[in-house]
Structure formats: C-alpha cells, structure tokens
Amino acid sequence: MRYIDLNADLGEGSPHDAELLTLISSANIACGFHAGDAVTMSSCVREALRNGVAIGAHPSFPDRENFGRSAMTLPAETIYAQTLYQIGALAAITHSQGAKLHHVKPHGMLYNQAARDPLIADAIAKAVFDADQSLILVGLAGSDLIRAGEHYGLVTRQEVFADRRYQADGSLVPRAESLAVIEDEQLALAQSLLMIQDGKVETITGEYIAVTAQTLCLHGDGKHALTFARCLRQAFAAKNINILS
To answer: At a CB cut-off of 8 Å and minimum separation 6, what does 109 contact?
Structure first.
C-alpha cells in the first residue's frame, strides 16, 4: 500500500474549510499576514482537532493586499522574525486547545522564493528549528527549502501540487502565466497519480522530470476544491493509496 499526505491551505476566507477538513489529512492554517486572524485560526484548529487532521502553520510575507503573492526583498533576519512570530501565534492557539503544532508550510511568494533562494530558505528553516525542533518543514519537492530543513536536522516533507504546472527545473509555473493552474479535474487527478505512483511529472515544455511526492497540496480556495477533494479520495481508494498525515 502507498501512502500520501493530502494537505490544504485553510483559514483564508473560503466557506468550505469545515467540509474540507473531513477530507484531508493535514491543514496549513493562515497566520494573519496574508489572510485570517486570531478568530479564524482558533476556528480552524478546533475543526482540525475534531476531524483528526494534523495542524500546521502557513506563514507568509506581510501582504494581505495581494494575498501573499507579491515578491518581496526583505533582510533574512526580518523573514526569520516574521516566520517565528506567525508560528508562535498558531502554536499558542493550538496549545490552548490541548494540542500541538505539527508542521510549517510557507505560503505563496514566500514559499516560491524560499524554493530557489538559499538565504530565505535558511531564515525560514532556522525559525522553524528555533520555534520547535520537532516541527516538520514542508517545501516544494527538491527545493532549497527542503535542503535548508535538512541542514538544521528538521524532518521535511517534499510537496507536490495537484493543480499546478511545472517547469523543467522542478519549480512551479508562475501564477501570472496563463497555463499555471490546471483547471480540468481529470488532468489534475492524472498528474497527482503520476507523481505519487511513478515519481514523475510532465513539465510545461513536455518532458518528464522526477519528483518526490510525500504530501500533495489541494488548494482550499479553489472554486471546485470540495468536489476535487472527493474525486482524489475516490481515486486513491481505487489505487490502494492510503491518506495519512
């Protein structure tokens, strides 16, 4: 039997968070910098605990106006402090409900810049290490963020994306480009199964590259997120793929 962690980004304003939490194994909860606030964080933690879903922090650049998707040039010490601050906020809320934070996955442009910039990746990994050495660091498969986490001795999880197209170097096609997001559910499902079962993905230029799929991201803010999550679960069950955080 194969295993895959199915994660989703929550607390970002979607009305489907509670339903998604019945279908996924890990939740990445917005910590206020790109979306959400103390109330939404508390609500997401409560629902995640109710459904036995692993709770993770989803820190971002301070960019609510653009949903954390604007590129920023910040000193490494600033990124470190902001990441530590956001982890600490969600950790406190999680602790208040009798649970413990499980993982950290950066959001949006912070995630993408950390995937290819060793200094940003190091700042994030150090913040996770200093917050709690038992936390799992989630990053783009094969990226600088994964390598930074390994440097600090953190447990890492290499992430792949069901509905995003890939470039030849393993990075995601920027959202500004028209073909960045896979809108067709069957195409996204086929890509997911290829990555999980065969460890490879087709790039935007047509070649296949190797990927390590340990956790699969389902975008919780997508308009078809619920139906796609159900579709994934049905397909995984048929292929004897177990969903586990």
So the answer is: 61, 63, 68, 69, 70, 71, 72
Rg (CA), the chain: 17
Q: Residue 231: how many CB atoms within 10 A of its CB? A: 17
71 contacts 79 by C-beta, under 8 angstroms: no
Q: What percent of the chain has pLDDT over 90?
A: 93
pLDDT band at residue 222, thresholds of 50, 70 and 90? low
Using CA atoms, how far residue 156 sits from 73, 153, 203, in Å, is: 25, 9, 24
Report the distance separating Cα 193 and Cα 51, nearest Å: 25
Report pLDDT digits (tens) over 99-110: 999 999 999 999
Q: Are 107 and 56 spatial neighbours (Cβ–Cβ below 8 Å)?
A: no
- 68 Ramachandran zone, left/alpha/beta (phi>0; psi -120 to 50): left
Q: Is 196 helix (H, G, I), strand (E, B) or coil?
A: helix
Whole-number pLDDT of residue 155: 98
Could you tell me what percent of the chain has a pLDDT over 70? 98
